[in-house]
Amino acid sequence: MNTDEMAVKISEIDSREKSNTKRIDKIEERQDNLEQLTNSFSVMQNEQEHIKEDLGEIKGDVKTLVDKPAKRWESVVEKALTVVVGLVVGYLMSGGTM
After folding, report:
1. Which residues, including other chains, have CB under 8 Å from residue 1's CB and lie 6 or more apart?
2. Quick check: pTM over 0.85?
3. For residues 33-50, average pLDDT
4. Are 91 and 98 in contact (CB under 8 A)?
């Protein structure tokens, strides 16, 4: 191999080295982006778990608030019926005269 042929080979190797370096740089950049995406996904997943827990608590609180008026209404109706039944029984026991 003469000097000219060696110069051509060295030039080709140098060119290939530059090309490979560019490709490796792109791969490293893509890997960094992938790691950032993975970290973002992990953070998002944690946030979703917290939101899920909070939503469960909120649903429980809303159910309690919705049930409260219904329980009050049932209590009022029960007491009113007790008073009415008591009056009717009292009226009947007094002989039907007032």
Report:
1. 9
2. no
3. 95
4. yes
